[in-house]
Amino acid sequence: MTAIAVTIAGSDSSGGAGIQADLKTFAALGVYGASVITALTAQNTQGVVAIYDVPAGFITAQVDAVFSDLTIGAVKIGMLFRSATTEAVAEGLARHRAKNIVLDPVMVASSGDSLLAHEAIESLRRLLIPLALVVTPNLPEAAALTDASLARNEKEMEVQAREILSLGARNVLIKGGHGQGDESVDLLIGQGEVVRLSAKRIATKNTHGTGCTLSSAIAAGLAQGRDVVTACQDAKAYVTATIAHADELNIGHGHGPLNHFFAQWREP
Hints:
Layout: E1 4-12, H1 18-28, E2 32-44, E3 47-53, H2 56-69, E4 74-77, H3 83-95, E5 101-103, H4 120-128, E6 134-135, H5 139-146, H6 154-165, E7 172-174, E8 183-189, E9 195-200, H7 210-223, H8 228-244
Helix pairs in contact: 1-7, 2-3, 3-4, 5-6, 7-8
């Protein structure tokens, strides 16, 4: 059977993050991708110019259309922006008994622009985190979800991850990309031992869409039948490779995109 994943997220007009990054990731990893668009952004590698909310009723229509016809193996959730959007997504996923939900609590773009209204944070905590198999916050997102300061070390990362677990998530992958040091360390925390995922930190400004790519790569692995630990390990390796090859692309004048198709594209 064909592995299918759906991304529920915002559109990035520059193609580096959001729906576009998710679908590229699914395709690169051999998974058929469907989509539910929650917002349209006018943005490029230098920043977000404008955001247009997709009406909640139309989000519901997209969810119903996809789930009523396709056999969805995993769900990636990204940018939601408003509480009404979160409510429509949560109700739709519950109605269709969606499985293998990966929640990337997108709050801020690489450029620093806000992608989640402050009033929507509580509905994210209350409605979507309890549905998630995996939540993938970066350090600023974990701090916002737990009303804490930015984690300074792995011990503090674990404390915040466990607080997010207490909200109902089954697993939390807290990402250390915003940290310091030669290693970029993520911690996967569920009901068992802490799994430490580390990679050498790569010096590049081209990191636009990193969080979107990681969460969609995890969803791709789950859709293909991998367990959570293996899906996260494989996703970490894939994202690290896309960052390592990012400078092979020459896109825009700001934070450029990752090279999602580094394994498929070859220099002539």
